[in-house]
Amino acid sequence: xxxxxxxxxxxxxxxxxxxxxxxxxxxxxxxxxxxxxxxxxxxxxxxxxxxxxxxxxxxxxxxxxxxxxxxxxxxxxxxxxxxxxxxxxxxxxxxxxxxxxxxxxxxxxxxxxxxxxxxxxxxxxxxxxxxxxxxxxxxxxxxxxxxxxxxxxxxxxxxxxxxxxxxxxxxxxxxxxxxxxxxxxxxxxxxxxxxxxxxxxxxxxxxxxxxxxxxxxxxxxxxxxxxxxxxxxxxxxxxxxxxxxxxxxxxxxxxxxxxxxxxxxxxxxxxxxxxxxxxxxxxxxxxxxxxxxxxxxxxxxxxxxxxxxxxxxxxxxxxxxxxxxxxxxxxxxxxxxxxxxxxxxxxxxxxxxxxxx
Length: 357
What we know:
Number of domains: 2
Number of strands: 17
CATH superfamily of the largest domain: Vaccinia Virus protein VP39
CATH class of the largest domain: Alpha Beta
């Protein structure tokens, strides 16, 4: 029997040798089961195997051959919805070596960095491979993704996760171990990269090599977690004189509960996870025109700074009358406390203050 490239026959059973995003479930496919309470479980289908839950057993053989989006009943009559997991489902449940970039940020990265089919993309900070999967899908087979990671264990987790989801190691993807500032010049020639995505602690340390690698008009995008990182990388980008003025933002998602007339925001939301800051590479020997704008609050002189000192604002002091009243109150409180210690009486009350001054 002749075999197609992605299907192998063994005793009448089809084994998946690649990713299939539609059609009937095959042995080797990943299936996502949704129970009656909405709990999700993802399994890899194997003939003869079963999936145990606290409410019965689901046989893999009952799923193999069913179309995507079917309902299967376990041995005690409990129904489970069966779907192929989406990429968003996979990245949220896959093994993690490092924290992942959430889908809400990954979507904005693809949009704001303008990741296009056929692009040459540099990614620094692979983590667990979540963003790598989104980038590989966006650039397509004609593109190239060059990933850089300092820690070997993170690279191993990312490599395994990507192979799990795609079914094999992509030919257009490489992982280079080491510091980006040291390894990028030896990996890619100057002005050969369309987009650079930096997910690292100190992206400003790599701007020199990134600037050399980017084509004129290329985009650099940095994903940072804190305000201090955001400020520092923005000023570092401006300080090079090689980029447009950086744009920064963050994305927050609030779900909505919609059921009949009960329409309201969810009680929980995905808030701050990180900041995105983007800029575009200028052509060589180009000087960015100065923006004509109103004076910014960030433009200040020594005189402006002095205006906010206590001397300029005037030190605020309490009036003599107020001070005398506070001294009497403190003295009365201390006297009562000492008296209680001596007599053991806890019922004494402070005398009324009748001094009109």
